[in-house]
Amino acid sequence: MSTQKFIRDVGIIGITQVLSNLGAFFLLPIITKTLGTYDYGTWAQISITVSLLSPLALLGLQMAFVRFLAAEKDAARIREVFFSIFFFVFFTGMLVSVLVFAFSDFLAVTVFSDITTSYYIKAGSFLILLSAIDQISLFYFRISRQIHVFGLLSLFQSLGRLFLVLALLLAGFGLLGVIGATLIVQGCIVLFSLILVIRQIGFAIPRFAGFGELLKYGAPLTPNSLIRWITDSSDRYIVGIFLGLSAVGIYSAAYAIGSLVHLFITPIQFILFPELSRLYDEERIDDVRNYLSSSLRYFLLIAIPAVVGLTVLAKQVLQILTTSDFVAGSIIIPFIALSGLLGGVFQIVINITHLVKKTQFNLFIHILAAVANIVLNVALIPFIGILGAAIATLASYSLMVIVVIHISFRDLSFDLGYGFILKCVVASGVMAGVLMVFNPNNILHLLCTVGIGIIIYFFMMVLMKGVGRKEFNLVKGMIIKLKK
Q: Which of 79, 100, 269, 424 is the right S-S partner for 304, CB 3.0 to 4.6 Å?
């Protein structure tokens, strides 16, 4: 895969993700304006509980799937590995979901601080199963580089949930409608994915041949996922304990907007890790460095102005997308947006530890960040509320980036591009100065303001030669490929 093809595929996934995220973007005002802070806080707690427990079902096997089959050509081997992982994860996912269903009253009292939420916990418990097997199903299209299939399924998942949630909310189903819509759409995605996989590689009852090697690679990554959850999501639990579900709703809505920055890493990482695995196995180390450096460059090209833009327009975005009850959360958006940027940098650099198979360092980094996050949350939230949670998140991600660069660069270093970063910061500063003049009060005005900001930013980048002919040719090629 040439660098140009790599970037074009990233662009295609990026466009798909933009369209998919638009679905999630418009879902936020629909849910918040319909449910209010308390029910939205309940939904947020259910969502982060699913994100906590899904890794227990996966046991890191989705990463083992990518790492071991990125260069595999034998259809029989791919079929054996896929169905071995799928059936194993189905069993573990069902087990975890049943346990959550059985202990829903306990979770309602201890975590949600409201026994009436037990009914919703029961309804949402099987999201754990579907979330786990959904990842395995979609990862097949990732390793086989069927970008168009992955893109279509992602769009269906996002837009299908958007319209089904809207329909069920209008029908008066409330929070139960949000949970039901998510269950239905994820179930359809799993079913469609399986049909496509079976058509391509056939079906076979797995013999679990070589499954031990997959578990040996993946299982040690499970604590990483669980500990990473502490850094990413435990603040919602702690906010709920100290401040209640309404505060969770306010914090979660603002967090969802601020964390949009981290979504920019998704299309890059989607293509990057399988390609890095192949290049490293072929001992093309210079190409590995080039891909890492280019990926960081293009991520920061978008992420830095996004952080600045969200910081300037934080209050207006919340006013337009939610209700006045949620506007208090605008103070945390800059902290969460910058955390998302640092999370993307971490995601790129951490690939090195996977390539050299020193994933034990991942565990160390995640434990360090998780401990710092919990200590800071407990220390700050009782005194400064949700702002304390945001500060704790930013401090944890800063620590993760510093440590991962220090550890990973011992084995393989690459150019971080400090000069390019400076140009992005300067261009974003000019953009911010112009955006401060605007005060958008509806979605159309907001989109126009964002469009003006983008034009100013890229004009400045071209002026400072941060973006040149190479980037324009890549965009042109990507557009031609999409038309075809």
A: 424
pLDDT of residue 15: 66
Cα dist. 4→9, 13, 426 in Å?
Answer: 9, 14, 27
3-state secondary structure the chain: CCHHHHHHHHHHHHHHHHHHHHHHHHHHHHHHHHHHHHHHHHHHHHHHHHHHHHHHHHCCHHHHHHHHHCCCCCHHHHHHHHHHHHHHHHHHHHHHHHHHHHCHHHHHHHCCCCHHHHHHHHHHCCHHHHHHHHHHHHHHHHHCCCHHHHHHHHHHHHHHHHHHHHHHHHCCCHHHHHHHHHHHHHHHHHHHHHHHHHHHHCCCCCCCCCHHHHHHHHHHHHHHHHHHHHHHHHHHHHHHHHHCHHHHHHHHHHHHHHHHHHHHHHHHHHHHHHHHHHHHHCCCHHHHHHHHHHHHHHHHHHHHHHHHHHHHHHHHHHHHHCCHHHHHHHHHHHHHHHHHHHHHHHHHHCHHHHHCCCCHHHHHHHHHHHHHHHHHHHHHHHHHCHHHHHHHHHHHHHHHHHHHHHHHCCCCCCCCCHHHHHHHHHHHHHHHHHHCCCCCCCHHHHHHHHHHHHHHHHHHHHHCCCCCHHHHHHHHHHHHHHHC
pLDDT band at residue 17 using 50, 70 and 90 as cut-offs: low
pLDDT of 339 reads 95
pLDDT at 154: 80
Residue 31 contacts residue 178 (beta carbons within 8 Å): yes
Residue type, 310: L
Query: Both tokens of residue 4?
Result: 């140009």
Kindly give the interhelix angle for 3-58 and 147-170, rounded to the nearest 10 degrees: 50
Contact (Cβ atoms closer than 8 angstroms) between residue 263 and residue 53: no
What separation, in Å, do the N-terminal and C-terminal C-alpha atoms of the chain show? Answer: 19
Distance, in Å, from the CA atom of 304 to the CA atom of 99, rounded to the nearest integer, reads: 42
Lowest mean per-residue pLDDT among 87-96, 153-162, 319-328, 439-448: 153-162
What is the Cα Rg of the chain in Å? Answer: 22
The dihedral region occupied by 72, where left means phi > 0, alpha psi between -120 and 50, and beta the remainder, is beta
The model carries a pTM of 0.78
Cβ(158)–Cβ(23) below 8 Å: yes
At 393 the pLDDT is 95
Q: Does residue 479 register a pLDDT over 60?
A: no
Q: Would you place residue 83 in the very low, low, confident or very high pLDDT band (cuts 50, 70, 90)?
A: confident
Please report the pLDDT score of residue 482 as a whole number: 47
- Higher per-residue pLDDT: 266 or 441: 441
Q: How many CB atoms lie within 10 A of CB 168?
A: 18
Q: What is the mean pLDDT of residues 207-218?
A: 79
Q: What tokens does 223 get?
A: 């604590």
